[in-house]
Specification:
Radius of gyration: 31 Å
Number of domains: 3
Number of helices: 14
Order of helices and strands: HEEEEEEHEEEEHEEHHHHHHHHHEHHE
């Protein structure tokens, strides 16, 4: 593809114009500090400088390239566009779409009698960003962790109350469903057995080498942090921790699977021996089992996705009449509730560590996590679990605030279209003026080969 084939039709606020040429000014905002006795100054970097784009263009009547109609009408429309308040969209022939503003005197229109139906335009554009103000807020990570712990305490209290409080099962009042007998223990064991199966599946998938490959640092194309943007993975190369290797990941995965199996066995053993004296310790064992499973998932985004199966877990309801069946149903619901709420608490802690890749990513994650919490809020309200109900509502509010804050300054996803397949390096340079972001485009577009990207895909707008 030749240089001329890659040129785009120039326009400002949707008004097309021809281009003779132009220039751009780029750089960093720096302050040089000069000291006595030193030959070289210290240069303080204050961030990227404002990009300034100058274009020399023209308007011509009834252009064979862009049309336009009357040149007088084109000029009046362009002047009105330049004087319109707020930033506008500039389509630059080689830089593509930019959000810019025209400063005072930024549009000069030249006309001459010998030029006839032709006006020359001299533009000065200034890059324009969003109006963002600093705000004071509590550290969301620590707050989410505290609220997740509070949910664990509340869920444990409600479990103990559900299992030991006096209750009317239809044929008389009993002093806690745990006193009904071995049938109730069987209902608890059934939930523990289901947990062992689900936890085993999750741990095997999460610690498979194909999945753990996303934690490797270096150039691994779409497999490098492929499933999510992870603060965990990024921290491996910046926090002083030795980078993962295939050998260390394999060993770590085996350790985590063994830990999950051990925790599941402890959960089943506690369920088989549950009685009135061990109800409180059983709830702690159940929550510890879920925490061990969450610890086996190294990537926070992966943890949110995989723990969703536990957050929505619902055992097959026990049917039948009589006091024993009613007691078994209460025990089954109480046990499954403490597992779900422990999973939701672990998901909330993963949200604190998750680094959204875009505004859309944060919004989608908010919908998923709040969906889990909303469903459990309804269950807790219907069951009369007041402590869990209040803790879940507070946790939901913090999750929304955290993801709203984390996603507010991120670029949204935007649909891009091109006339023919291009390499990811070329597209990264054209879209972002940064070829090193090619892996990011590969992750978003998921092409068959990065040398032939699809002609239409969604990626970060900036």
């Amino acid at each position: 593809m030749s240089w001329s084939d890659e040129l785009q039709q120039a326009s400002f606020r949707g008004l097309p114009f021809g281009v003779h040429g132009g220039e751009g000014r780029f750089g960093r905002r720096v302050v040089p500090h000069e000291y006595p006795g030193r030959d070289k100054p210290y240069v303080e970097d204050l961030g990227r400088a404002t990009r300034r784009i100058r274009l020399v263009g023209f308007l011509v009547e009834n252009s064979v390239v862009y049309g336009g109609g009357s040149v007088i009408a084109q000029r009046e429309a362009m002047i009105a566009a330049a004087e319109t308040a707020g930033p506008g969209i500039l389509v630059h022939p080689t830089l593509g779409q930019l959000t810019v503003s025209i400063p005072d005197g930024g549009l000069a229109v030249s006309e001459r009698s010998d030029a006839g139906r032709y006006f020359e335009l001299n533009f000065t554009f200034i890059e324009s960003g969003d109006r963002v103000f600093p705000s004071i807020a509590q550290a969301s990570g620590s707050l989410l962790s505290d609220l997740a712990n509070a949910l664990g305490v509340s869920a444990a209290l409600d479990f103990v109350n559900d299992m030991t409080a006096s209750i009317n099962l239809g044929l008389g009042i009993v002093n806690g469903v745990i006193s009904v007998g071995k049938s109730v223990v069987g209902a608890v064991v059934g939930v523990a057995a289901d947990f062992a199966v689900i936890a085993g599946q999750i741990s095997r998938d999460a610690t498979s080498l194909a999945n753990l490959g996303s934690l490797l640092t270096g150039n691994f194309g779409r497999y490098s942090n492929a499933n999510v943007s992870s603060a965990f993975a990024n921290g491996q190369s910046t926090s002083g921790v030795s980078p993962w290797t295939i050998a260390s990941l394999t060993a770590w995965g085996a350790e985590q699977r063994a830990a999950v199996d051990s925790a599941s066995a402890a959960f089943n053993q506690a369920a088989a021996g549950i009685d009135a004296a061990s109800v409180s310790t059983f709830s702690a064992t159940a929550q510890a089992s879920v925490a061990t499973l969450a610890g086996a998932i190294g990537n926070p985004g992966d943890a949110i996705n995989r723990l969703g199966k536990l957050a929505t877990y619902s055992p097959t309801p026990i049917v039948g009449g009589g006091q024993v069946a009613a007691a078994m149903l209460v025990a089954q619901q109480a046990t499954s509730a403490i597992v779900r709420r422990a999973a939701i608490a672990a998901i909330a802690q993963a949200v604190a560590a998750y680094a959204p890749s875009s505004y859309d990513d944060a919004a989608n994650l908010m919908d998923i996590v709040t969906g889990y919490i909303d469903d459990e809020i309804l269950i807790a309200g219907d069951a009369g679990d007041d402590s869990s109900y209040s803790a879940l509502r507070t946790l939901r509010q913090c999750v929304v605030q955290t993801l709203t804050r984390n996603g507010a300054t991120l670029a949204p996803l935007k649909a891009f279209q091109f006339r023919s397949p291009l390499p990811s390096l070329v597209l990264a340079q054209r879209l972002y003026q940064d070829a090193s972001r090619s892996d990011e485009l590969v992750s978003e577009a998921n092409p068959v080969h990065p040398g032939f990207m699809p002609t239409s895909f969604r990626a970060l707008a900036t």
